[in-house]
Design a protein that fits this description.
Rossmann fold, 7-stranded mixed beta sheet, 4-stranded parallel beta sheet, 13 strands, 10 helices, alpha/beta, 353 residues
Length: 353
């Protein structure tokens, strides 16, 4: 009997999602003769009647799709199924409606592509059903536990490093301090990797407690050595714990640039990359990772596995229990290889001048 599996993307978009969807559908078709149903707009699609979903035709999933950013299925990072915001301002548990939507699709398995929050919600949503679920980790922040890499991270780092490449000549030409704010809601993986790759002078991340006066001193040291410009990378969550109450509504990058102008007398400019890091053509690494994850996810369903997440560890694809993933943010190791590398290159992390 031909089986039918479903796939949805949930949470914020990133590069590599289409490559993952394509890999799932192709592996299901060519490897097992299965059909794949793509569910639109994450869990929101399950609220539609009929459910917002469509069969994925392998003949239309060519390599062009893998090169495209975003997700052609659509996604959502709002509307918690268990506390769904209603028009009247109240919150309602709509998870039973979503579960009923899954039943209407008559699926034999579901694959969800999401970050730690999305995977936790999907796991909880399916807990009372017999539907096997496999998760694929995606997040530009790279903070999903039990995997060294998540889909979208490589592209986000490449974009941030390119931004530094573009800011450096401008900073040098105008003798300015150029502050680049990158995403990183809970972790500084993008910031530390981009700072090393892009030749930054200073990088500030939430995992390392930093002080503004240390940053000011490092810039002063650079100027005394004849440097007329500097590159500073700051993760969005790396608020200065000593003065964070003074930020108001300004982003940490804008606040930092303003404070550095006041403290150093040098011109400073802030660039906030924001969603530029999400919507881009995926790097080769993200396409490769997404493809490997998609194939492994289907193979796990074929093997009768459930409640697991695929991951990348020691140069190979692994799978781990979802219970070891959800609710456990993987942050930058303050004593890890990238931090040691940054310090060895003379990059200031704000904990010392």
């Amino acid at each position: 009997m031909t089986k039918t599996i479903g796939i949805l993307t949930s949470g914020g978009d990133c590069a590599g999602l289409n490559a993952a969807i394509r890999a799932v559908a192709l592996r299901a078709h060519h490897g097992y003769g299965w059909k794949t149903i793509g569910i639109s707009h994450g869990t929101l699609g399950l609220l539609h009647r009929p459910v917002a979903a469509e069969p994925l035709d392998p003949g239309r999933l060519d390599a062009v799709l893998a090169r495209q950013g975003g997700t052609f299925l659509g996604t959502t990072n709002r509307g918690n199924p268990f506390a769904f915001p209603m028009p009247d301002g109240t919150l309602k548990d709509r998870s039973p409606e979503m579960v009923e939507g899954l039943r209407e699709l008559h699926l034999d398995g579901l694959i969800g592509v999401g970050g730690d929050g999305s995977l936790e919600i999907l796991r909880r949503l399916l807990a009372g059903t017999n539907l096997p679920f496999i998760g694929i980790p995606k997040t530009i922040d790279n903070d999903v536990g039990q995997t060294e890499r998540a889909v979208g991270y490589s592209t986000a780092v490449a974009i941030a490093a390119e931004a530094l490449d573009r800011l450096q000549p401008t900073g040098a030409s105008h003798e300015r301090v150029m502050v680049l704010e990158v995403m990183g809601r809970d972790a500084g993986h993008i910031a530390i990797a981009a700072a090393i790759a892009g030749g930054a002078d200073i990088v500030l991340i939430p995992e390392i407690r930093w002080r503004l006066d240390h940053v000011v001193k490092r810039i002063a040291t650079l100027r005394q050595a004849g440097r007329t410009s500097a590159l500073v990378v700051v993760a969005e969550a790396a608020g200065d714990s000593h003065e964070e109450g003074e930020r108001g509504d300004a982003s940490v990058g804008e606040w930092l640039a303003h404070r550095l102008m006041t403290a150093t007398g040098a011109e400073a400019r802030a660039t906030v990359l924001g969603h530029v890091q999400r919507g881009a053509q995926p790097t080769a690494e993200d396409r490769l990772l997404a493809a490997a994850f998609g194939v492994k996810a289907v193979d796990l369903l074929a093997a009768g596995k459930a409640d697991r997440m695929v991951g990348w560890w020691n140069r190979t694809v692994i799978d781990v229990p979802l219970e070891k993933v959800v609710g456990r943010c993987r942050t930058v190791d303050p004593d890890g290889a990238l931090i040691r590398t940054a310090r060895a290159l003379g990059i200031c992390l704000g904990d010392a001048a």
